[in-house]
Design a protein that fits this description.
The chain is elongated. Helices cover about 15% and strands about 40% of the residues. Strands 1, 2, 3, 4 and 5 form a five-stranded mixed sheet that branches. The model has no long low-confidence stretch (mean pLDDT about 85). With about 90 residues, the protein is mainly β. A hairpin with a 6-residue loop joins strand 2 and strand 3 (about 45-50). It has one domain (about 15-80).
Length: about 90
């Protein structure tokens, strides 16, 4: 998959592999995903892409979720927080 910076019209480069993404819902953290961070070499814009097919842990999993959340607290530079993911958009 090729990712391009819309502003600079250049290919984004991998910045970090295996970033943890904490998905938040109205109730608080709801799932933790693994993904990759890409950065534009010209303007520095960053995106998160290549999400795993399923989360590492979800809030209903109790101790497993707590354990993974503790890892995110111990590695704050490798964690991205985001609001609930919207429904996928399909173009016709």
């Amino acid at each position: 998959m090729t990712l391009l910076c819309f502003s600079c019209e250049v290919q984004l480069h991998v910045h970090r592999l295996g970033v943890l993404v904490v998905q938040h819902a109205d109730i608080g953290p709801s799932a933790i995903w693994k993904a990759d961070e890409y950065r534009c070499p010209k303007c520095g814009n960053r995106i998160i892409a290549n999400f795993a097919t399923k989360p590492l842990a979800e809030c209903w999993q109790g101790q497993q979720f707590t354990a993974v959340m503790n890892v995110t607290r111990s590695t704050p530079g490798n964690v991205v927080h985001c609001r609930e993911f919207p429904d996928p958009v399909y173009f016709q």
